[in-house]
Amino acid sequence: MNEMKRLLSFVRRAVDDYNMIDDGDRIAVGVSGGKDSLALLYALSEMRRFYPKKYDIVAVTVDMGFAGMDYSPIEAFCKEKNIEYVVEKTEIAKIIFDVRKEPNPCSLCAKMRRGSLHAAAQAHSCNKVALGHHYDDAVETFMMNLFFEGRLGCFSPKSYLSNRRLTLIRPLLYATEKDVQYFARRRELPIVKNMCPEDKATERENIKNLLSMLEKDNKGVKHRIFNAMCKGEIDGFKLCGRYPDAGKIDEGENNEHT
Q1: What's the first-to-final CA gap in the chain, in angstroms?
Q2: Does domain 3-250 have CATH number 3.40.50.620?
């Protein structure tokens, strides 16, 4: 199947199942520069051409102030796709690593990035914020909450922030990480390397590795966890009668997709 049709099918299903987009929406797409956010931006841009509900998008990058970060490739991509692009400059890196010298910086960093993204969305008259969390992110988040906090929970497919008057949506919910990787490679998305010193050294990476090991001996375990989240209606997840196919691909694409 064509990689664009495949990704768009996942995005449209999630958008329809959770009523993520309404007529007249102006959606801020959080673009970190990684494959997930760029794939989401591309998909939402393309879907504007045929989706029955009309909406606008604004790509928003929160520049945390790390030296060496160059967002010009994303700017060029947005110009080509006729997407408004905003870079929100901050001093998050300086505050966390130089001023506060946080020993465990990820939680505070995520909170500050969210705040900056939401503020930028409001400043550019957006009523919704689209985030690039995918199927594997959902399973990993559920397992992190279970392992490290002893609770059943995850981010929500769609949620409303009353204090910001913003709705958060996650249209990549049904796309696996392999789907996104394959799409990003085939479409040669302008991925920007993350210069954060904590990149890949996180609890999430440990859970990702654990799930990968479990999947080798128990094929479909992530798929079953995701479905259990839907059956249990964890944080807004729900049974929709249609499920992601756990990243199955055409035989001819197998080598590229891994």
Answers
A1: 16
A2: yes
